[in-house]
Amino acid sequence: GNPLVENGVLQGYSTFGNRNTLSLNGTLNAGGVLDLIAPKIDSRGEVIVQDFKQSNGKVTSAAINAISGLNRVARDGTVQASQQMPTALDSYYLGSMQAGRINIINTAQGSGVKLAGSLNAGDELKVKAYDIRSESRVDDASSNKNGGDNYQNYRGGIYVNDRSSSQTLTRTELKGKNISLVADNHAHLTATDIRGEDITLKGGKLTLDGQQLKQTQGHTDDRWFYSWQYDVTREREQLQQAGSTVAASGSAKLISTQEDVKLLGANVSADRALSVKAARDVHLAGLVEKDKSSERGYQRNHTSSLRTGRWSNSDESESLKASELRSEGELTLKAGRNVSTQGAKVHAQRDLTIDADNQIQVGVQKTANAKAVRDDKTSWGGIGGGDNKNNSNRREISHASELT
């Protein structure tokens, strides 16, 4: 921001009349109070602020004030006036920040704050914007390797291939003593860990959900020699869910002021009290994880019985990553319309209160296991008969909600 100086004394900063971006990369170390003020902030590095001891012995506590939008800001970080931008301008905090207090604000209507990385405050951690979006980073890796004995000629051939792909998650972590995330429109936290003493998550609508991770493995082994052939391919795919976690050593409050609170595969705990309050609906449900494996193949004149034909089989199993709410004290679910739970686990050591102006729906969430087998192989050119199997089955499992 541009400095505002009166009578030779710095009064504050102004970002009126510009659309500049303050970009931070690498490592930034500072002492005392660090003010980051710009219409847009893009922080992708490491920012560390420590207490600063002045020459008179007085200690200035470590603090970060990151204020984006068109504002006039006082020296103490207070926003004195704001102007609205003609278009949305999000700010990004994708690295790490560490200080005694961290205060992140975007005053631009329709603009948001994007979080991914680590925010670690010894005392207060506050984030305020029109939208707050927190996600963890997904990294992809893959391999594809052919066998060393692969060959093809007029008499026969071998083709062996091994392949895999994987996704790993670097979780976003928010830590502090008192944590407050307030969004005028939507606070959406995906695969995010929040740990503190007193935690408040608030939005026009509030969503805590998970990140799906996919792992695959594949193996192909095809061989033939004159009239003999044996081909087989095996595949496996795992879909895993990494949910969001909120852990408060004091109290936790999850609030929507206009629409719904949705917790999908989320784990929320509080040592003193836990409350979830929605202007419309409170919805608790789980996330489904899957494990799929398959084998398909073809053989011709295989073994002494000259077995010939195709076959395939597949297995698929699902499991549920349920939403869990636990309080060592009181736990309250309150909705302006409906409270619904699907396969959720809700437990209070003391009083459990569920209050809905319309309906309370305590339901189940279903997962399924499926198996399919097809075998069209015959022996001795069909003279010896064949398997001719074509079977499939599917079984559903209902996961009941637990409210205690």
TrEMBL record:
Record keywords, A-Z: Toxin
GO terms of molecular function: catalytic activity; toxin activity
One Pfam family it belongs to: Fil_haemagg_2
UniProt keyword tRNA processing present: no
Compositionally biased residues, Basic and acidic residues: 318-328, 393-404
InterPro entries: Filamentous_hemagglutn_rpt (IPR008619), Hemagglutinin_rpt (IPR025157), Pectin_lyas_fold (IPR012334), Pectin_lyase_fold/virulence (IPR011050)
Top-rank taxon, per record: Bacteria
Stretches with biased composition (Polar residues): 143-153, 300-314
Region (Disordered): 136-157, 292-328, 372-404
The name this protein goes by in its record: Hemolysin
Organism: Serratia marcescens
Lineage: Bacteria, Pseudomonadati, Pseudomonadota, Gammaproteobacteria, Enterobacterales
